[in-house]
Structure formats: structure tokens, C-alpha cells
## 1
Amino acid sequence: MKNNRRDFLKLSGLAGLGLASSGILSGYSPAENPGQDNILKLAKRVHKQEFNMSGYAAPKLDTVRIGFIGLGNRGAAAVKRMARIAGTSINALCDLRPEKTAASLDNLKKTAHKPVVYTDKEEAWKKLCERDDIDLIYIATPWELHTPMAVYAMNHGKHVCTEVPAATTLDECWQLVQTSERTKKHCMMLENCCYDFFEMLTLNMARQGYFGDIIHCEGAYIHDLLEGNFSKTKYYDMWRLKENIKHKGNLYPTHGLGPICQVMNINRGDKMDYLVSVSSNDFMMNEMAKELAAKDAFFKPYVGKTYRGNMSTTTIKTQLGRTIMVQHDVTSPRPYSRLHLISGTKGTAQKYPLPARISNSHEGWLSEAEFKAVEQKYTPNLVRKIGEMAKAVGGHGGMDFLMDWRTIDCLRNGLPLDQDVYDAALWSSILPLSEWSVNNRSNSIDVPDFTGGSWKQNLPVDISLSKGGTTGVI
């Protein structure tokens, strides 16, 4: 198993910069493909909290000095967005591929940012983390590298923002929690969908009691990535295709899950109790591999593999008796849907696959004029302040810029981040937990309490913008 893992890391994203050759990272000792019994053990683990990172406000940073690791699709876009935010200094860039660092450097030519470049050396990303002029490490590498890089960065005194998912195993989830608590460094998963405009609208509506008591929520990531997963160029060394071979269950739960967890105050007044998950067979990925291999020998190693099923459906019960449904399908030719459904005792909201809708009765959805009135009343202050600028800068319609601006503003003003390490661990844990359930005839499995019981006292995410909001846009 160790040799298999080492071989995979050599082929994955930035792994050639140090993971493969250095063995186990300092402070990081992942289980080697933990078996079913180990997943059960880690799911039932009782956590004694060393320090509560929920609501934690780190010391103010007048200028947030940033180092980027991974400059592919997401990372390169993030560099350009951060360059538009005042009070930032992009001090370092790192990617295994020199052409990627060169492209990001080129994008920064007309700015005040003059980063040092790390590339094509085995220990490069680690050296970036060890610099004393970096406050925040921004990780946008293949999934399997997120946790080891985040742990290493926190152990070297850096706050961390990592792309989704933050972890792929329960062991990694616990590693993130323990390291963040011990170092008192933020570990935020970059769940940008929490900053989409309708999701933020419904969060504020929930805060103001529009929906009454929240009963049930649904989220999904249904996005046809079949051709992209088999592209030779879209994902470095076919890493995303390999993830669809390695795992079953919901590989990518956080886009749909994050916003509804915030609406339901999960980790902040309620917690997930247990889940069950069912998955269809794969009807498309192996067939695609066969078709491609018939024309190109490159794809022959991918024929006959056990791919994750087309559709994964996970149902979660919370401690307060509420329910959540999360779906994942990245291969079927369905219309894009990042389903966001809120169902309460007084009202309902839904977006995807149809446009956003709101209702306060069983008789139907509000009219367009009524919807606009609700939107005007409940638009949160963050959107009122920076929403139009975010749309102009871009990034998935502006939500990426909202996320980055808000994160930098919180760090500069010494405010708690909207997403903490417990959110990162919990939302990511759906991957291994759903996989266990699928492998065990959809039996239920406990969801770990990463907060160590502090969910009972943790306060909801503050979206009032009563503090902060001082960061400019260039």
C-alpha cells in the first residue's frame, strides 16, 4: 500500500515537489487507505477540544501576505482576484509546472506584487510554507494534497485557505482539526458556493425567521464533467479521473452542503448525527474509457476499472431531528444543478435546476414582483457593499471574489472567518462516510462531532458586517 500511495503522489499535481521523496511529512501521518473498521472507529471518535476555533479571531494583519500553491484552473484565477484586493501582498507562487508560475507572474506585471517563484524542485512548496514573510497559504492543488499541505503550513505558523474538499479521509479530517486547534491557525475550506448571491440571500432570510423553523434542506452537485475527466490536459496527470476510480459515494459534497449547513447552523447550535448513502452503478465512465481506448492506447489502463456510480444520494439526520439530502453526479447528461433547497415551517426557497424561487405557502411560488421585494428586503450587507464589484471582477459570477474579499477583510480586521476548520472537516467527511455506507449496503454510520461538543455553544456565522468592511478594491 505504501508503494502504491507513493507512486500516486509522484504523479499528482505538486507531489513531485516533495511529498513522494520525503516520506511522511512532519506532523502528518495519514492512515494508508483506512479499512472499513478504521472508518467506523474514526467516525465514533470522541474529541477533546484543545482550543475552540469556532468564533476565533486571530490577531489583525494590516497586510495579508499570501503564498499560492497550485496555479492550475482555480489557483491562477485566485491570484488575479487577490491582486484586486487592497491590503494584500502576493509574496510567493508555487507550481510543479514552470509555465504555470510564469503565466501568473505575467498576470501580475502591472501590479505592485513581486512574488518569489518556487517550481520544479522537490522541496519547493515546503520552502514556501517556511518563509517568514507569509501569513496565508492558499492551496489549489489536486485533492489528495490538500491536507498534507495545510497541516505543514499550519505547523509553520501560517493560516490556510484550501480548495475543496479539504480532506478525503476521516484521518485527514481529524488531522486538520487537531493541527488548527494546536497552532491556533485558521484552516478555511474555500467553499465559494456559500457566497453565491441566492445562497447568501436565503441565509439572511433564515436569520430573520422568514422560513420559520428549518425542517429539511437539499443540496447537490450535478455537473456533466465526463469529457473533462477524460481530458489529457484539463486535470494534471488525470488526477480527477483517478479519484473517480479510488472512491465510491459522494466525492464532491461541499458545494451543495456548505450553504445549507450555514442556514441550519450546523456546528453552531445543531450537529449532524448519522447518515446513509446509496449509489447507482457506473453506466458511463467505463464505457467512455472503452471508446477512447479503441482509438488511443493512452486510455487502455482506464478500461475495466471500478468507477464510482453515476448518482450518489446521501441522507443525513441532525441532532435536532432535521434532515439533509445531498446528491452528486458528474457523468450523466443532465442540466447543471447545484440544488439549493430550504424547507421550513413558514416558507421554502429553491434554486437549480430552475431559476431561484421563494414561497410562503403551498399554493405556489411568489410572483416576480414579490420575489424582487423579498430580495430587496433580505439582501445581506456584504452583497450590498461589494456585490456589484464582485460581479465585475468575476469568478463564478462573482461569488469567488466575494469569498476572497470577505476572507481578507476578516484577517485584516481580526474577525472570525465565516468557515472554520470544523466546517472544513465536517463537510469533507461526507466523502469517506458516504463511501462506507455505499460499501455496506447503505447502512447508517455516525458523523463525527469535530467540535468536541462545542456546537452547543458556538455562535452562528455573523453576516451582519457590523464589524470590518474596511478593505478596499483596486
Note: Residues 1-34 have pLDDT under 50 and may be disordered.
## 2
Amino acid sequence: MLSHLNSVIYGTTQIMQVIIFIAGCYFFGISIFGWRKRKEDSPKEYVPQKKFALIVAAHNEETVIAHIVDSLFRQNYPSNLFDVFVIADNCTDKTAEIAAEHGAIVYRRNNNSARGKGHALEWMFAKIFSMEGKYDAISVFDADNLVSSNYLLEMNRQLCRGHKVVQGYIDSKNPFDSWITLSYSIAFWLSNRIFQLPRYYMGLSCGLCGTGFCIDVDVLKEIGWGATCLTEDLEFTMKLALSNYKVAWSHNAVVYDEKPITLKQSWNQRKRWMQGHADCASRFLGPLFRKAFREGDLIAFDCAVYLFQPIRLVFIGLITIMMWIQTVFPESPFYNMRYVFPTVVWYVFVTLQFLYGPLVVLSERKFNLKVLYGFLIYPFYCITWIPITIQGFMSKNNKDWSHTQHSRKISISDLEKA
């Protein structure tokens, strides 16, 4: 019995190591193109001409709604070229009243059967399309966000350059509230520089982040929104790839997002992300791979590989745990575990993983002692992804929306001064 168990463990670990290594080399290879930032045209070289509908999706956000609306009205962009809309989605508080007091155009939506941000956006898009005043593009934000004053200038530049869908830089407005918020912030800083930016440089598709993105209205009308799962951003990214569109990137269009403060809040949010990720993987993996191999489409291939990313993370976690057990208990069932690649290769691989992050964040000029402390606890945050991913994939058919409470009252002026 023990011999059979050892054989199963041995074979399983070999397969996991190969997948981890190949996928790691793939993602690392792409990330290299983001090490050096290229000089781009100044947004001031492009005359403001695009008209924007700025949409804020809000559900019981009376604590923070005023700050996002105020930050949008502080844009360094002609006021006649943008309007601010707030969707008061199934709200039972004063979100709608406060948003209206601060100048937003408020639409109240009450629908208990079609709940969630994706449904609210689809409802609002239909209203935008039917308006007499025509817009060139729509930008979407969350109620807890704060938006940099140059956001629309940057989006106008990218749209004038011919891009149809653009994602802005997602930063954190509360990175040092707790070890969870700091870990979240590190994850997003890393993603911005080694996932999003290099894909933009290589002509691949960046990923929509659920907020701070901009879509050409004609594209939205052509392919439709239809993204109503628990991760509508991921769903629409894959839909774009299948429709021969890609997501561009704007590194200087900064949107500050409020990160969950407690592990419980974080767990629920990330479980929802993994439920949506599993749902998207089940629906889009096949079509993306078929498009990739039939048409030689690298964008579709890269999107398909990204859908495998959570599985790779689970494998890394399991291999790490097995190695720890093997070290502490040499006579455990993992004693005969062998490395597919030489041990020195794995040491280099692991070392790069730990050194890579601090160097990337340093290049973004966010490195300080608190961030250094964050990298010491960041591995524990990463480990929590393992049970979250498993739980999310096992409950992918659960479509109940889990709302994250937001409570940080921070204005854009306070944040930019800090």
C-alpha cells in the first residue's frame, strides 16, 4: 500500500514540476519585456477630442461614493467632454442622494434576480446607447476608487492612437492598513509591471481589472457586453480576444483601489474571483485554444494560458508543502520525491521568485521599509491562494455575488499629497 502511494506521489510530483517550470519560464520570459519602461508620447500632444461616459457601479457605498465622484470631476480634461454616471444598484442607503449632491447623474436600479456588477453595467450600457448625446468611449470604475487627474488625458491619447480597449494602472489607496492590504498592493504592483506592461509592449492583450478601464462605444455595441459572471472583467477580456480585439495599457492613468483590510474580507473576495475564473476557464479555454492553433493567434494562446494560472499556483503550493514535509520528516511518503530538473536549477528558480518582486517594486519607486516588511509576509498571502483557489473551483456554479464593504474615507487630494 505504501509502495503504491509512493509511486502515485512520485509520478504526480514529476508532472507538477514540469508544468510549474514550463509555465514559470513562459511568464518570466514575457515579464522581461516590462523591466525597462519605454518613453511614450505625452498626452498633451493629443488634443482632447474623445467624449467619455464615466460610470461608477455602486451598491450601498454611502461612505465612499462622494470621493470617487469628486476625483472624477477633478480631471484635467474639458468638462464638456465627459459626464459622470452613478448606478445606485439595489441600494438601501444614501448612495444615490450623496452622489447626486456631488454632481453625478444617478440611475437607480432595483433587480433582485440579476444581481452583481456585470448585470448593472449591462443595464447602464443600454441606457447610454439610447441617449441623444453620443459618447466615444465608456470608462468603468468602482465606488471605492480614486482617479488620478490625468486619467482622461491618458485615455484620450490611447484612443487617438487607435486602441479600442484600454486598462489603467491599478494602485492602492490603503496599502499600509494591514498585512492583507499590503500583500494585495504588492500583488497589484507586480502585476502592473511584469504582467500588464510587457504584454502591451509585445502586442498581446492585457487583462481588464474590473475598474479603471475604457471601451470604445462602437466596439461595445458590436460585440455586446454579456459579461455577467462573478468576474465580468476576465469574461469580457476573453470575449474580446475571441472577437479579435485586445486590451491596451496606460501606465500613467492611475486608479487607486481600496483593498480589503481583513483576511476574512480578502478570502471572500478572492474566492469569488476564483469562482468566476473557473467559470470562464470552463467556457473559454476550448474556443481560445482552437483559435490559437487554427489561426496562429498568439493573443488567444496567451489568454488561454492565463486561465491555467490558478492551477499552476496550486501546484507550486503543493510542491512547496511537500518539500517542507520532506525536509522536516525525511521518512515521510515524500522521501523518494525527485526533481525533474537539477536541484541547482530549482534553487535558482526559487531565488528568482523571491528577489524578483522587490526589484520590480523598487523600479516602480514604491520601495521602503514597510514594503520590505510586506515582502516577508507576502509568501503567506500567496499560500492562502491555494485553499481559496480549490474552494473557488469547487463552487464555481455558485453565482451569488459577495459584496466587499468599503470604509476608507480618503480623498484624491489627500492621497496625492501623501
Note: The domain at 1-277+307-417 is CATH 3.90.550.10 (Spore Coat Polysaccharide Biosynthesis Protein SpsA; Chain A).
## 3
Amino acid sequence: MKKYALILFALIISISVSGQYKPWTSSEQPLQEINTLKKQIVKPNFRKKDYLVTDFGAIGDGKTKNTGAFKKAIEKCNVEGGGRVVVPKGIFLTGAIYLKSNVDLHISEGATILFSQDSNDYPIVFTRWEGMECMNYSSLIYAHEEENIAITGKGTLDGNSDNDHWWFWCGAKKYGWNESRPGRQNPARAKLHEYMAQKKDPRERIFGDGYYLRPNFVQPYKSKNFYMADVLVKNSPMWNLNPVLCENVLIERVKVISHGPNNDGFDPEACKNVWIKDSYFDTGDDCIAIKSGRDEDGRGIGKPAENHIIENCEMKDGHGGVVIGSEIAGGAKNIYAIGNVMDSKNLERALRIKTSSNRGGIIENVFFYNTKVGAYKEAAVRFNMHYEKPGNFIPTIRNIWVENLTVEKGGKYAILSDAYESSPVTDFTMVNAKINNVEIPYKVDFLKNVTLKNVTVNGQPLTDLNK
């Protein structure tokens, strides 16, 4: 009996040790992890059958509203086993589009889906807004618990937003808001925060007309096998591409040009196995921002952002190139950014991790590799644990590896860190980095286990990060 007890104890210890945190010791480790992950992320296959939206009454004159035609085409395609719903050349005005399983919404070259500026064309659905669950306007393209869905083609998705439609709801004068306009999101945003803190049932957090919480553009929710390729996305009301709680997401050769408020390019939220590659971002907010929910909602669901590859993308304007946070209460792990290019006088940071003690969560295993940066404004690498208000959930940031980073025209800092003494940024490694034309090499606090190898700032070797 004693022998079996010892065996059981050893097994428990083995399981415990195998699950322990282990920082990388060389770039070969994350590179191998990337190769393994790529084999798991595959695009869905669709039945070879086309459903032309014009066969369902759609008219591409830019004036006729085609919401019903899109609905009929997608539903018929779904019922019959799937295929492509094809949008031919023309400008097709519509309200919200709901994507069903096994449907590829294919936007032909020369075709534009132009979304209505009338909020009545967007039904109330279960959604997330800035990482908080609620009932609000449907995203312009939405899916819930669907499988094998896609948006493809060399056409355009136009959110049709400007300072007179959607954008001014943010409440900023630079985006068209003034005291004479009724729309402003601030009171509803505060109410949603209040509901979340109270842990009110999300289906009873009802917004919509009169609350001015802008919809996101593309939001598959709790869906599997989402694919997007080749399309141009522009003029979103808010976040552009926002898969939530999805698994197996592949996005390639997509171009996002959208300069409105909170117009993040790509916001995968609490998703697992995500690969975005060969895409272009020129945005009014973060180019790519990886998220896992805000505060109580993020912690309550407890789903991290997990296994993300960001490869061969180009970032122009945007608050950050590759960002983790700030709605990151569920944590993030295994984030790999490789071969990306960034360059803009308006780009503020190349790699940014932003969180707070109101969020909590663990952010670990971030690999930032082979990155070329022309210009940025603030910092090449930025850690911030004091983003927004503090709380009682101290976050963790650990195992951050930056290798082969070149910067031609840096901003104020090369490295900027703002952490907690009780929770320092741990195991930060920088290898083969050349950062030129910065004002101040670094400003940091509370870093632990820092490794710098062949790092130069303004042509001078950087061997440590003393205060």
C-alpha cells in the first residue's frame, strides 16, 4: 500500500512540475512552437456551390437596401449544405449581415458591401463591447456559435462611418461630437462598467437605441473555423476585426484602413489558435490588439488569448503595432509576432503590453522576432501595468523575448517599463537589437531577470537596464 502511495505522490509531483512556468532559453524553442502551431490552424473547406446575391433580389446601385437579399442567400446556402454567397461587381447597401455555418461570403473584385448608417438596421444581439458582455447592436457582420465561416474575395467592406455617422458617438469633438448632438457613449459606458462590477446577467445589460455604444465591424462570437482573406475593410464604427471566444482563426492578405475613434485593426478576444499573416493595417487605434476581456467579465470567463501568430504584416498609423491589452483580464500566452514591418510618424509603440491591477491575469510567452521598424513616437518596447484605474488584481508579465529588432528612427525611448514592485516584469530577453535615433535609451522600473545580448541604442552597446 505504501508503495502505491509513493507512486501516486510521484505522479502528482510530475504533473505539477510539467505544468510549471518555464521561460525560454533560446529562440529555437518558440520557433519550434510556431511550426507546430501552424499545422493546427487550417482554413475551412466549403461545398463547391455558388449563390449569387442578385438571384435573391439584391441590387448593386448603392441605394437599394439589400438586407433581406443577403439573409435569404445565406440561409439557403446554409440549409443546402454550404458554399459561397457571391457578391458581384456593384455597391450593395445593407444592414447587419449574419453569417451561418458553412457559408463563405465572397466579395468579388469590384464589389463593395456598403453598410447602412441607420442604427435601426442592426438588431440587438449578445455581444462584447470593450471586453464587457452585453446586449447591443449587432456588429456589421456577426455570427454566434457558428462553424466553418469565411469572408473572402478582392472586394471591399465599407462600414460607411464618418464624423456624422457613428464616430461622433465616442464623445470627442475631433470626431464630430458637440453639445448640440444627442449621441454620446459616455453615460452608457459607465453604466456597462457598473453592471459588470455588479456581475449582472449579461443578457439583462440591454443597450441599443439611445445608448450610443457603437458596433464593431466583424465579430464572430463563440465560433469555430473562421477564415478571412483578401478583402479591404474600411471606415468601421469601432473595432474592425473582432473574433470573440473563437477557435481556429486564419486571416491572410487582408487590408484594414480605418481612422475613426477606437478603430483597432484586429482584436482577437479570448481566442485560441489564431494566425494572421500578410496583412496591412493603417488605423486610428492599435493595429493589432490581443484581448481576453475586461475586469470582472474577463476574469469570470477565464479564457486567455492563446496561441496567436502574427506574421509578415505591415503596420502604419496606429497607437501600437503589436499590442496585448488592455482588456486582458483573462490573460494571454504564447503570442508570436514574426517578420512584421512597422513605419509611421503616428505609430506610438512597436510592442506594447498594457494591463492594470483592475484587470489581473498572466501575460506570458511573448515572442517578437525579426521586426523592422522605420519610425515610432514613444517606445519600441513598452510595458505598462498602470493602464487605467488600479484595483486588487496585480497582473503578471513574464517571458518576453525580443530578437532581431531594427529601428531606423526611434522615438523618446527604446524601452519603457512601468510595473509593480510586487510583480516585476520577469524574464525579459532582448537579442540582436539595433535601435537608432532615440532621445533616451530607457526608462524602466521593476524588471527581473533581464538578458541583453548584442543590443545597441544610438550605436552604443546596452548591457543592462539600471535605473
Note: The first helix runs from residue 2 to 18.
## 4
Amino acid sequence: MPVILGSGEHRYRVVENWAKLPDGWSLTDVASVAVDSKDRIYVFNRGAHPIVVLDREGNFIKSWGEGLFNRAHGLHIDADDNLYCTDDGDHTVRKCSTDGKVLLTIGIPNKPAPFMSGEPFHRCTHTALSPKGEIYVSDGYGNACVHKYSHDGKLLKTWGEPGTDPGQFNIVHNIATDSDGWVYVADRENHRVQVFDGNGKYETQWNYLHRPCALCCCGGKQPNFIVGELGPGMAVNRKVPNLGPRLSIVDSKGKRIARLGGENGPGLEAGKFLAPHGIALDSKGDIYIGEVGVTDWKTSFPDTPMPPEVGVTRCLQKLEKI
């Protein structure tokens, strides 16, 4: 029997062994995923083939990016099917075509800004676009801010600093926008998503989240959002139940309307997650989840050897909407 997650209008069937990779290929960690206008799924991963492209059935189409990226982290796709690839290993954002041609690079490869300087970039994490095509970059691990760029890569504005107050950040891990121009920032280690206007003015925050890591706007007016929450990161609460890893579906005000998994901690069983790090939807409403299970394995299972399937296909999941 297939495993079903969620409830009511938000029920999903776990599609096991969905991704069909060429023999001998490994994804290692899947940092992020994106879906284009033809429902092709782009898998930004930390294996030997950084961008793997699959169809809705999980069949392999092509790969690219070999030798281009240092460490995959964020992936966003625009209405014209351009991909914004955020590389936290070399501190850049690259805008690429669907066949891998680099159209724009923001940041200087392998030259990070000083730690917590507020200057771009120090281990940037993700991107989102305004309705006008301006580029927001969350930055990230070595900074605590958001940068706003023009469509052609000119810095317009920066906001944020380290801390826990409104407008401050503790690991700016993901970013999303809606059609009205609001900016949503996954403030991971502050256990919240902060909401800003298009110029960085703090508006509100969503609480009742546990280490929000992935963030996906489902589109339309008053959209729902899917939040990928990491499980415990400290040994003291490693085995505490009901902390994730999991997916939460919230409305445009941040009110939770469904929750998928996470009651009994991480695992390889169908219906469980390891470390949801990137989320995307296709035109049918199916959910694709990239997970950094290899990186997170020792945090979740310090005394258990990692099974080889974690790095092959288990870091990419599909949930089929019912």
C-alpha cells in the first residue's frame, strides 16, 4: 500500500524510487530543485553532475554544470525558464539557460566578502525575483542579510544584520516572493519566516516552525507556502519526537493548514524525511523535495553507518497530489 501524507485537501502519495539515474550515478546531497514550463525537474546537487534534469516520471533527460559549480545550494527558475543557481561554495549566483549557458554572474567566484560584513557575498544561499524581475539574494551563512539587485546584476539595496530582533537574522537560509512583491525569508536558526515589503521593510513573522530550511511559494493571489523544516540539530534533543524533519503547508498569513511527516523523527522509510532543503511544485501540484541527507546524517544518526542509498537517490523525493 502506498504511504499517504497530509489530510483534507492536502493529501499526497509518496512515490518511492522515483528518480531513475544512469547506472553508477550519485546525487549525494540535493540542495535544491526547480520545475520549468514543460514540467522538467532540475535537480541541483553536490554529486559529479550538478544539474540533473528529469521528467515527471523520473526519467533522466540530461545533465550539465560539471566543472562550473563548487557547492550547490539554491535554485530558482523564472517565467522564461532561466535558472538562478546559488553556489555557497564559491559565493556566487549564476543565471543560466536550461542547457547550461551562463547568462549572468553576480559575485566574484571564490572571493567571499568579509565575515558578517553585510557586503555581498559570504556563502549566499538562495534567490527570488520581484514582479519587476529584480533579484533578491539571501546571504546566508557568513552574512546575515538580504541583497536586492536589478535584473542585470546591479546592487540596489541590502538589509539585515545578525540577531534575533525583527529584521535581524540567524542563518538567512531561503527566500521567496509572491505576485504582490512581498519577500519571505526563512530565518532558519531563529525558527521563523520573516516577511518584508519589496524594499526590506519588516512587516511580520511566522512562528511555530522548527528550523525552516526550504521555502516554496505556491503561486497565485493569497498563495499557500510549503516550508521544509529540519529536525533537531543538537544532541540534547536529537530523539525528541514531533520536531521534524517535515513539511508544513501554511497560508499567506503563515497559519498552518497541513503538515506532512515529522512526528517520529528522520528516517529512510517511506513518508519520512532526512533533511528537506529545497522544494518545488509542478503544474499538477506534485511536490519535489531535495534533501541534504548525506551532510545531515551524522547529526541525526551519529552512531549508525550511512547506507549507500542515501547519496544515490534518497536525497530526492516526489509526493504526488491526490
Note: Residues 293-300 form the longest helix (8 residues).
